[in-house]
Amino acid sequence: MSAENGKYLTGVYPGTFDPITKGHLHLIRRASRMVDKLIIAVADNKRKGPLFTYEERMSLIREDIANMNEKGCEIEVQSFDNLLVHFARDVNASCIFRGLRAVSDFEYEFQLTGMNAKLDPEIETVFLMASEKWQFVSASFVKEICSLGGNIEEFVTPHVASKLKEKFST
């Protein structure tokens, strides 16, 4: 799936993934069909106060990727704690994938994309609209539902659901 010019295409799909949801997995599957290599870039963003440690999030993602059917390319999970465009440049990525669920996502992503283009105009941002099935799923909602004893099985894989329930049972 190399580009017409023979260039090997690497894409980055960044996020906090606290936790990874089926919506994230759907976007990963779609993005993996557009590049030769996809790097899931896990942000070590302590400002967001994640429920899962950085190591736990990496482990959950790796397990979900290992169990994923229909991967379009090699998928790797890496961490980053610097500017996204710097990380993308360091891994020779030509594009950054961003998921959009709603107009409010677009407004934020539009500003972020403009800033990233100023910082590195060689790296393109590719927006993927969430499918109708996953439009309203967010990691924040999943955590809140789980913390209140609700059923989250529809929104995350079984092992992620199990880990979430463990977190809220202590």
In total, the number of domains comes to: 1
* CATH homologous superfamily classification: HUPs
Average predicted local confidence, pLDDT: 91
The shape is globular
Compute the number of strand runs.
5
State the distance separating the first and last CA atoms. Answer: 46 Å
Strand order of the largest sheet: 3-2-1-4-5
Tell me the radius of gyration.
16 Å
Enter the CATH topology name.
Answer: Rossmann fold
Number of helices: 6
Q: β content, as a range?
A: 15-25%
Order of helices and strands: EHEHEHEHEHH
Low-confidence stretches: none
CATH C-level name: Alpha Beta
List the quaternary state of the chains: single chain
User: Roughly what percent helix?
Assistant: 40-55%
CATH level-two architecture: 3-Layer(aba) Sandwich
Overall structural class, as computed from helix and strand content, comes to alpha/beta
- Major β-sheet profile: 5 strands, parallel
Protein architecture, described:
The chain has 170 residues and is an alpha/beta fold. It has one domain (10-134): Rossmann fold. 40% of the residues lie in helices and 19% in strands. The protein contains six helices and five strands, in the order βαβαβαβαβαα. It has helices spanning 22-31, 54-66, 84-90, 103-119, 139-147, 158-169; strands at residues 10-15, 37-43, 74-80, 95-100, 124-129. The protein starts with 9 loop residues before the first strand and ends with a helix. The mean pLDDT is 91.
